[in-house]
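Entry:
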Amino acid sequence: MSHLPTTRCPYASHLAFLWNSMNPSSPIPEDWALHTTHVASEWVEQQFLTHMAGRPLVDPLPGLDCPTLLSCRHLALLMAEAYQHPIKLDIDIIQYNKALAKRESGMNNAQEEALLAKFPPAEKTLLDSPAVIIDSGYQIILWYIPDALTPWMQSDMFVAMQFMEDLLKASITARKLGGWRTCQDNF
């Protein structure tokens, strides 16, 4: 999200902060694809905050096509729904993070057993609607947002991936020397 104030504030005043501090022109050149992503993400944030504050929705920004606008509106609504349905776990994510080894792989059974003993798992919870998972300090550790990507966005992403298929296949290696990002055991 964009430049958040350092102190916590209600959503209504945070929204006012955003509107007052938002730069009318994006720092990203308009001919870059990233510009559209930036504009869309800013609008999703504004929509999310207005949903949370119970205010009228913000008008769409110019330059976004209709499917993108509908997808952004859908995402913001689901994010607001998730945020209003927190599930609190009895774990301190900061302490858990400190207990992790550097470059934790999840493949060291002794380390995994030690973590389970120190941080026993919570009771099983079925996530069937948008929610946020929070720790004992009210830090969001997971956003669960099913159906966040609309079918037409999924289709667009699938088509775009087809053009990268050969590059992706070539990047996957049979050995771990290239690192975990490209090892075929991880796919």
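The helical segments are 11-21, 33-53, 66-83, 93-99, 109-118, 151-162, 165-171.
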